[in-house]
Every structure is written in C-alpha cells, then in structure tokens.
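Side project, low priority. Logging it here so it doesn't get lost.
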Amino acid sequence: WPYGGFTLHDKVYGTVDVRTIIRKSSNIGAARIGLMLGNRRMECYLRAFGFGAVLGIDLPGEERGLLPPSATWDKVKPTRVAIGQGISVTPLQMLNAYCTIANGGRLMRPYVVRKIVGPGGETMSENTPRVIGRPIRPEVAAQMREMLAEVTGGGTGRRAALAEYTSAGKTGTAQMVQKGGGYSQTDYWASFVGFVPAENPEFGVIVVIDRPRGHRTGGAVAAPVFA
C-alpha cells in the first residue's frame, strides 16, 4: 500500500473488517484506521490510555515513554504510529492499557504494595484500586474484548489459547531502533499482552521477548509463554 512516498507491506489481502484487522494483525488496516481517526484524535486516545506519561506506580524510576505531539507528525507518521512505530511505550503502560479494556474502559493506577503495617499493627500506608481515567465507553470495551478473544481463537495469537479458560489479547512484533536512527532488520521485540478469562477478566499478563532468534513474531515466541 503506497502512501506518502513509502510502501507498507502486509500479509492480509482483500477487503476486510476491523475484526480481521485485529485478528490477523493487518498493518495496512491499522494504518488506514489511523488516517480515519486523524492525528489529533489518535494522540488524544493514546494519551487517555496513559501513553507518554507516568502512571504513578509505587516504584522509583518509572519512565514516560515517547509520544511526540501530533502537531509535529509528518504525513506518514499517523500510519506508522497506528502500527506501533514512531512511539515508545513501557511494558507497564501496554499492560495497563489492555487491563483498561478488561476493566470496562476504566484506567487504573497500578501499585505493587497493598499495605504497610507498623510494629504495633497500625496501618502506615495503604494502596487501594483507583480509577485515573476512562478513555473508552464500557460498550466499546466489551466489543474490544470480543475481538481480542478472536486473536487467540484462530488469529495471530492462537498459541495463547488455553484449554480451561478463554483468553484475549494481542501479539506484537516490533523492530528495535538502531543506534543512529532507523529500525533494525534483524533485532525485534516479540510480545503478547492479554487477559483471562476473556469474558470476565481476572488476570492481565504481558510477555516481552528480547531479540528472539529463529522465530521472531509475538505469536510464535511470546504467546506460548503467556499460555
């Protein structure tokens, strides 16, 4: 698919719907959705899901990731941001975004320590679940859970399917940035992020494989670890 002087390649052919774009990881389909959204709206959604900002977890050194303002994007940028290039996110941000879908559209502040109790039994500090945003409506989150369940039910994430429970999620195969700029043709991040059970989620998990060799896609090397 030629656009803006560059050609985007795909393994999905023909006219497809959004479910197929997600199930089969269609680059062109995602890129065209990005153009339909428009730069500003896509940036607003990404920021609403917590990308480009700290989530406030109770650990030191949390990174913000990189999300340039949409006002600085060139013509090609929205088609690449839509497939995960041109921005940088942390595994925590990505997991929390999928947990937001699992939670009916509620973005939560993550935490590690639930409670600290003093020697006399008094509560020194306590963390409780807290909603910090609502990027999508509950009915949209429900639609997304259904589509993400199809990823493991015959899509790129079928190796993340479980015998006892339904699972939902998404594969990721991201080229690493090279020193001096540009993307590597040999080094990748392979990932799978999702939740279980798909219809009534209790657990969210992200698996990231650093520079896999042989098979390099998220569906081949990260999805089985998730399972």
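Brief comment: Strands lie at 2-3, 6-7, 107-108, 115-117, 123-126, 131-133, 168-177, 183-196, 203-210.
Revisit when time allows.
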